[in-house]
Design brief:
Radius of gyration: 16 Å
Number of domains: 1
Number of helices: 3
Organism: Lichenifustis flavocetrariae
Order of helices and strands: EEEHEEEHEEEH
Keywords: Metal-binding, Oxidoreductase, Zinc
GO molecular function: oxidoreductase activity; zinc ion binding
Helix content: 10-25%
Protein name: Alcohol dehydrogenase catalytic domain-containing protein
Largest sheet: 5 strands, antiparallel
Shape: globular
CATH superfamily: Medium-chain alcohol dehydrogenases, catalytic domain
CATH architecture: Alpha-Beta Complex
Oligomer: single chain
CATH topology: Quinone Oxidoreductase, Chain A, domain 1
InterPro entries: ADH-like_N, ADH_Zn_CS, GroES-like_sf, Zn_alcohol_dh
């Protein structure tokens, strides 16, 4: 494999270790996009991996690329991608569902029986690139920084969604 097909990625194998490994750049399958990561935030659950504790159903710390709060630029799209194009600025939602069950059709991917979570049970955004389903890409405006967009996917997004569902206005 050539160096052009490799990227740096962060793994947290536990025992307070951080490993930067060279791994293959992923290729988008049908319905997926390749995002060049420009920002990826760290939260408390990442520290659990750092100390060696599996999170959200993960088999073990260090099993996949970390980072569940990424944002960046779309650099490639797979077949069947209709709403996202190369050059789009996106934040990436962390919950990946099957896309076809009742919960996924409602946008509640975290209730899907086949749910995975980037950074914990699927490769995440603490790398140069990440591949995700198109439906997990949230377009961000030009005025928003990549860091603000990345943190909006989890910390802010969780709070906003709860307030909206409860009818609480801020």
């Amino acid at each position: 494999m050539s160096r052009a097909n490799r990227m740096k990625a962060v793994f947290l194998p536990g025992n307070k270790r951080v490993e930067i490994r060279a791994v293959e750049v992923p290729t988008p399958s049908p319905g997926e996009v390749l995002v060049a990561v420009r920002a990826s935030c760290i939260c408390r659950s990442d520290l659990s991996l750092y100390y060696g504790n599996a999170v959200v159903g993960g088999d073990a710390a260090g099993a996949c690329v970390t980072g569940h709060e990424p944002a960046g630029d779309v650099v490639a799209v797979g077949a069947g991608v209709n709403h996202t194009k190369v050059g789009d600025r996106v934040a990436v939602y962390l919950g990946v569902g099957c896309g076809v069950c009742e919960f996924c059709r409602q946008g509640n991917y975290f209730l899907c029986a086949k749910w995975t979570c980037i950074g914990f049970t699927a490769d995440g955004g603490n790398a140069e690139f990440i591949v995700v389903p198109e439906r997990n890409c949230l377009k961000i405006p030009d005025w928003m920084s990549y860091v603000a967009a990345a943190i909006s996917t989890d910390a802010f997004g969780t709070l906003y969604s709860a307030c909206k569902k409860l009818g609480i206005s801020c």
